[in-house]
Amino acid sequence: MAQVKDLEELVLNGDMSITEFACAKIDGSIESMREKHPELLWTMGTQKFVWDNCRDAQKNGQKLLFFGGSVPVDLFPVFDCFGFYLDTIPFRLSTNPNLTSKYIDEAEKFVGASMCGLDKTELGGWLCDAYGVKPDLFVYNSVPCDSSRTVYPAMEKIMKVPTFSFDTPFRRDDRGIDYLAGQIEDFISFMEEQTGKKLDWEKLKIYMQNSNRNFELQKKCADLRKHKPCPLPGRLLVLNGSTNALSSYPAVGDLFESELEVGQMMIDLGMGACPDEKYRIAILQNMIWGHARIMDWMEREYNAVAVMDAFGFQGDVMYEHLDDRKDCLRVMAMRMQNNPMIHGASGPSEHHLKLVDEIFQNYDPNVSMFFGHVGCKHTWASAKIITDMIQEKYGMPTLFIDLDCIDGRYKSGEEIQVQISEYFETVVMR
Amino acid sequence: MDYQKLFESDISNKVVKEWRTQGKKALGVMCCHVPEEIFYAADVLPIRMRGTNCVDSSEAETWMSSFSCSFARSILQYWLDGTYDLDGFVASDGCLMASRIYDNGVYINEREKKGQFIRQIGAPRKYTPRTISFYKEELQDLIADLEKFTGNEITDKKLREAIAKHNEMRTLIKELYGLRKEKDPVISGTDTLKVTLASTNMPVDEYIELLKALLNDAKNRTPITDTRATIMLIGSALDNPEYIKVIEDKGGLVIMDALCFGSRGLNEPLVVDDNDVLGSIASYYLSRLVCPRMMDKHVELHDFIIKSVREYNADGVIYERMQNCECWGGENVLLEKRLKDEGIPLLTLEREEQMANVGQLAVRAEAFVEMIEKEG
Asked: Which of B103, B120, B134 faces A385 most closely, judged by CB atoms?
């Protein structure tokens, strides 16, 4: 297989699309893993599933649906659509800063530099005509942030495909849920019109059951992390955060089943993600997608494992009455408000506060870190409320690090490591 | 009647103090989706919050970080340092920065047991029958809370009177803007912004009387004749007339705007359906092209900008966007091309609430004016 650098060059020159690049890179990683670490192959399953489907959905007779923000994903396959979560692009490209830089620079010709790197990468990639696929439909939401709700309406106009948008309210009560559930009814009508298919409730039930299974397994994996030592590495938290976008597919459940199996085996063997666990880290905001290896480094260097994060962690809202349409749509609405990023970042700070408090109550961390993505200004703007609570209730200071999760030019992995090292050595280990 | 008070854009507590000595409440209003008619009907003085002339927002920065919008940060600063001495404030989730002012305000209020009236209403980001209905419910909640807070009942009759009063103000503001269509207008962009900012800091009845006096005196004002180019100014919340003055000092007369403290917040009348007064308010406030926060109104906003450029005969558009203001941060994706297609020159500027880099602004404004000014 070609070297990643060569592939990058092809993309930069416009000779290879982002989709082809991602598929080739994932296939390369699988090939290499098969040789060196076959026991980790399961971690690549969902990534391969997503990108292969993005590339091939239309060839396979499905409609390709792009989506941004938190939307009712369980409905997509019912209408024979494959939903591709746009944030997957910056997540995937974040380890290739030459590529994210190109697309971010392109976007910044039109948008403010302070805008979120995820949205800039998505917009810039589209403006460069680099996706390699064109969707049949586009669905987005007014969450999580002002950046996305600025970029997605613009992308709607330039993509020129039938589009549906949701307006998510800040309130999480019955009024807010009913408001969203009503919009889901509107969305169903939109999908029926665009696909020419009526909603097949029996088919939806299968996807809702898949989804329940996936959420249950995710919850079990999260519960394993309460164990001391924590059996699962911090890196998997990075992966978990984006799996909700695929929640109705069995591939996600397969990932969690493998994760569960590995975690349980580690517990049975009395082992932890790091050999002699000393520190259990709670991560309060975004994940460091571009530098996920820092998770491994903290485990090796400081015997410090990230036990839970306020990005991917969530409550377990399940479909209970599968024949009750109103109830199911309300569950979808609740899940839309409960997704990674949405639950902690876009609503009132009290939800983020509650979430972090639950992490501290249940996972017993002794280190608190706020990896503040500079694009998430709204989360920065509630950081003092959150960290004051941790200080007052749990007597723990928090390390703040500003970083750009996507744009590697903002701060290098080495700089982040230096800041973490100083914190461990001057505060945590003192 | 002396109308000089209209040109005082500094934030002052004097009016609030006078109002409160009558035993009445004064509340801050955050963002453009909190209908001031409801406050009028409750006999509450609404003070639209801003950060004019805030030079140090360091206390607010500890709450909101340096990654927040400096306009929002300045408002929180003024809230924390007592520049605003009010009974509380009502915010909408206009943008996430406004929401975070609310969150921090609530947290500090509870922590320090201040007992202030702090509320947030949800303003949808789309304009459809479903969103109007949701927003109307939010307004009903606000009415109920205000009735409890003030002891004053808010009836449809009072709301209709409040709408009539605010429409009177809007008509006068529109008349004021009409003066700027003249070849040699009698009011500059700097002074117009001062006048519109004054509306945020006094009772609407008093404001209307002052506006009438200004308009009556318009014929006696000296026309501005040294204009090199006329400009439409669009962009993030601008509450500092000095910013416009820098542009106008270089010969670029600002004759129209799409600013939330300017034409967008004040120009259009609210049409009332007597069978659904609150629904009319909800529909008006959601449909107003006040800011690009509305996801389904970007094209309409761009249409308005192009139409206004034609109507006011502007030679070019200056688009100022506040750093970290994402609502206004992305308009160029679509607008730049549209303006280009229409042959309308555009200058995009980044700015902060605090007047920094004035020299740089002046240089860029002058270069733009030189580029667009017409011969002879």
From this structure: B103
